């Protein structure tokens, strides 16, 4: 099971190129951090990996990927439903019995220190609790490919450290985990790093060429 990208480049209509010539292979059992400055295309790359966005150029190979989980940066839920309902729902949708599904859901919520909030309504959760709940729901589905966008953005430092550690261990469950992040702790918890800053369009050569002409011009004037 893997996802491989070959000579991938992307830009949106009317905008500059975000990244270009990216070659990378995401393998089963790996947790990969996608890093880089704001606006470099981290979330866009997640969309391309999921198949939601078509790259401007390049190819993507997916082998053995049948279930894709996505955790957005901003959590969304049903205000009046409980936290447990949110994690249980995808399991019930697959045909599992409620009791079995609840047991699995609570075990997963425990990974993210959320079992105490099982009976709370989604509307009563804090931003950090809601974010961890979305992570628990995605993990409970056991996706082949789990895509996570800025998972610690709404968490305090202590909770962020805990969540980063859990995310770093998820690949041990047999999935591919890809995390777009600015958080150095999350990055360090991952087994591999893909830095999109290394694939930014290179305009340095043009600048160097312009600069190189300056001394010659000055020399001619001096003569």
TrEMBL record:
Keyword Transcription in record: no
Origin superkingdom: Bacteria
GO molecular function per UniProt: ATP binding; ATP hydrolysis activity
Keywords: ATP-binding, Nucleotide-binding, Transport
Name of the molecule in the record: ATP-binding cassette domain-containing protein
Keyword Transport: yes
Source organism (scientific name): Bifidobacterium tissieri
Positions of the UniProt region annotated as Disordered: 202-223
Domain ABC transporter: 3-223
């Amino acid at each position: 099971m893997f996802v491989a990208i070959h000579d991938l480049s992307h830009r949106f209509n009317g905008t500059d190129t975000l990244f270009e010539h990216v070659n990378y292979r995401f393998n089963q059992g790996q947790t990969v951090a996608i890093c880089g400055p704001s606006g470099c295309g981290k979330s866009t790359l997640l969309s391309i990996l999921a198949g939601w966005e078509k790259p401007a150029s390049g190819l993507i190979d997916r082998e053995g990927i049948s279930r894709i989980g996505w955790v957005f940066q901003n959590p969304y839920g049903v205000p009046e439903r409980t936290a447990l309902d949110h994690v249980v729902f995808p399991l019930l949708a697959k045909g599992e019995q409620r009791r079995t599904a609840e047991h699995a859901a609570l075990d997963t919520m425990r990974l993210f220190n959320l079992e105490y909030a099982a009976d709370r309504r989604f509307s009563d959760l804090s931003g950090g609790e809601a974010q961890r709940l979305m992570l628990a729901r995605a993990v409970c589905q056991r996706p082949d490919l789990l895509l996570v966008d800025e998972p610690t953005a709404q968490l305090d430092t202590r909770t962020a450290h805990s969540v980063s550690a859990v995310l770093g261990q998820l690949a041990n469950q047999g999935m591919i985990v890809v995390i777009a992040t600015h958080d150095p702790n999350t990055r360090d918890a991952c087994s591999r790093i893909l830095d999109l800053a290394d694939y930014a369009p290179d305009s340095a050569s043009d600048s160097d060429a312009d600069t190189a002409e300056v001394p010659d011009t000055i020399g001619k004037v001096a003569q």
